[in-house]
Amino acid sequence: xxxxxxxxxRNAIDERYTGxxxxxxxxxxxxxxxxxxxxxxxxxxxxxxQNEHQVGPRAAASCVFDGAxxxxxxxxSVELSAPQPRxxxxxxxxxxxxxxxxxxxxxxxLFRGLDLLFDRAYSKFNSRFQPLxxxxxxxxxxxxxxxxxxxxxxxxxxxxxxVRELLEEKIAAQNEVDEIVDYxxxxxxxxxxxxxxxxxxxxxxxxxxxxxxxxxxxxxKALYGTMTVPDLADLYGEHRxxxxxxxxxxxxxxxxxxxxxxxTLLEQPEHFWYFxxxxxxxxxxxxxxxxxxxGKVGDFKLTGxxxxxxxxxxxxxxxxxxxxxxxxQIGRVTVRLISLEDCPEGFGDQVTTxxxxxxxxxxxxxxxxxxxxxxxxxxxxxxxxxxxxxKRGERLPDPQHGCSMTxxxxxxxxxxxxxxxxxxxxxDQNLAGLWEDGVYDQIFGTTPNVYRVWRSVELLRTVRAxxxxxRDGLLWRADAAASHGDLLxxxxxxxxxxxxxxxxxxxxxxxxxxxxxxLVQDTFSWVLRAIDDEYGKSSHIIAAxxxxxxxxxxxxxxxxxxxxxxxxxxxxxxxxxxxxxxRGRQVNAVITLIAAGxxxxxxxxxxxxxxxxxxxxxxxxxxxxxxxxxxxxxNENGTRNPLRWAVDxxxxxxxxxxxxxxxxxxxxxxxxxxxxxxxxxxxxxxEELAYEVRQSEGTDTDTGPSEQ
Length: 708
Prior knowledge:
The structure is a single chain. This protein has 708 residues and is of the alpha+beta class. It has 30 helices and 19 strands. The strands form 4 sheets. A 7-stranded mixed beta sheet has the order 8-9-5-6-11-7-10, with helices on both faces. It has a 6-stranded antiparallel beta sheet with strand order 17-16-15-14-18-19. Strands 1-2-3-4 form a 4-stranded mixed beta sheet. It is flat. It starts with a helix and ends in an 11-residue tail after the last helix. Residues 248-256 have low confidence and may be disordered.
């Protein structure tokens, strides 16, 4: 690629993002050249966001937080509309010479940042990251998202082999329990194609062979027939992602669907045609090569090919063919070819949109036909006077008036004697594992009892409500455990209740539910202790609730604690908002910092919300005026009021300013320890810096900084 192509991209960044990408965080001493380089680097991060998600320049620019305390991640984008939430972490490197670097240290730093995200340590990131937290929280609360690491590199050369090896090693470690992380590299060619749209997309022309083809001529020309897996694999091998230029979504290499496609092709290639929904391609023109007789084999020359539906199928069958060509070669796929040469303007976009928004049939849809589910629906109506929804698309009842088959399956998996079923339920947002015949039969049984089903649902709802209430006072791993550990806690709580008569209509279930709030608190404490003891405090909470073996070990350890009748262990201070606040008050950090001259005069500090209630109440307020999160430090203004707020230029103590800000944002006036909320970028919070000073002086070293 020439310098001209780099110039195209540079101009596009200027046109799209001038005035949208923040540079105010750069020191005033930053040279114009360095400022320009920072803008361009942040620009390709925003381009990468637009490449991964259909958003405008302003939205893409708002995802960029490159700079001090970015933790190795330059931008984050979240997609919640897909069946499974998706988070993209972007690391961007600009180079005027087209040699954007990405080394081993960058890999280590990026994955340290990823660990912080999994542990909900959001205040470790800078203030421009904070407006993105609500979307991240929602993605994690909906279920375990897929995480795609996007390396946006202004280069054409491949990654250094050692860097690629380390990157894949790190990803393999993250995917030890389940495949949740993948990566892709966007290079100069990808950005050139992205900024110029169809004009930059390499026009893909190819000749394909259709077996048993049928032709449609009205109102628009189209063909459909069968292609072999080797032919499609060769097409993808030659053109790669260029084939998906018009597709709403590029192929996602590690999706569950993709893996299933590969497995089907390798294990049952002769059945692949029957199991696949097929592929749809748009073409500028379709011309027969030689004589083409409908119903027979025909060769066709296609110009301007783009796969608009079936991208995952194409990439998955290519992977399968490369892995085992002997097994995969007998596979066949139905292919539709639609010619746009006589179509009205915009028709291709309509085809792309509609073919990607139709709801596929899932395994759970077949279970709605099961006689046991039909009987449950009748029993809910006749015996409980409630609704039980068994088909997707039906309107869900208000919680007090009933539930869905999906909610029932999740609840029954949680209370089943086999704790592994709770882990199965956690593996997929759509509970795909619960609809497999063997698992489905275990949780519902041949004749499901309506009282057991409804009471299990009530228990799960009660446990979730209690955990949600706890979360406002929790930090870091504890917050993650309360979010992801709902089925694990429900399983243990159910085993602590008296449930032998749960299927009886006269059973005093209300009395048992009254025990749940205290049981949830005790169980949660033992569960968190068990996870930390069994797998270490640096382990991912998610792994403990999604892996069947880990789930069982945690259940056994927590049950031993509960059965011992000893008092539930107190959560460590770093896991609790109140305890961290109290510890921050034990030593006056401001006095320590001023006495040591630790922070230079006029250093700019930034505010970061600390707890869930603060994020809920203050995120939008802070984003509306970035000056609200800024203050400058003074060693000369005295130890009481060292912060000058950027909004009103008045002087405050860290805690006093924090109280004022929260009151203005939400009307809530409450005490708050400001030294754990005000940060010197790239150095740490005031509390952390004061701790470093005390440690170096040999005083008060027992009082360490919070993990937040």
